[in-house]
Every structure is written in C-alpha cells, then in structure tokens.
Amino acid sequence: MQGKLLDKINAEGLKADAPSFKVGDSVRVHVKIKEGDKERIQVFAGTVLARDGSGSTETFTVRRVSFGVGVEKVFPVHSPYVEKVEVQHSSHVRRAKLYFLRKLGGKKARLREIRA
Fold first, then answer.
1. How high is the pLDDT of residue 3?
2. Domains plus CATH for the chain?
3. Where is 4: in which H helix or E strand?
4. Cα gap 77→52, rounded to integer Å
5. Over the stretch 33-53, which tens digit does the pLDDT of each residue have?
6. Rg of the chain in Å (alpha carbons)
7. What is the largest CA-CA distance in the chain?
C-alpha cells in the first residue's frame, strides 16, 4: 500500500519530456536562474561524468574546465529549472562513472567520439 502511494507521488514530479543522454556525452544544460524578480537562462556546457538515482530523484553530474580549473555541477533530471539538455556529441565509454577524468588533463582527458 505504502509503495503504491509513494510511486504515485514520485510520478507527479517526473517530466514527460525527460532528456535522453548518457555518460560520456558532451552536453549543454540550459538552466533557469532567478535574480531578484527577473529570470534568465544560463548555459553550462561540459561532459556528463555520472548519472545517479532513479525516478524523481535522478541526477547527473556535468564537468568542464574553466580557466584551468575543473568545475562540476550536479543537476536533477526532472527539475523545473533545467530547461533543456542539448547533446553536442556522444563518446564511447566503458564505465558508468567517469570520475577518473578529474585526475587527467589536456589530451589525456579526451574521450573517443562515436561516429555515425
């Protein structure tokens, strides 16, 4: 009984048009930012390192190197503040979590691109 009730509550928080991407993809995440009473969209581009969770609590981690410093952000997949996720290109990876990229830099941090 409790499980069905929790599933129903979680289903209400899911996006119907959830973005489809996987670990290793280079993505551009369009995020709504509130500043005072104004709202704007900011783009965060990088590589998807991980996807965690399931259902309404699913998140994904995006990493980029900005001015020589690695920056990682965790976004909820079903958040109303994540406007859209554009996949720029996909890469062939053999891991579910790409945390090893944190230690690598330069050409060693490249991933093999999938060619269509």
1. 75
2. 2-106 (2.30.30.790)
3. helix 2-12
4. 10
5. 999 999 999 999 999 999 998
6. 16
7. 53
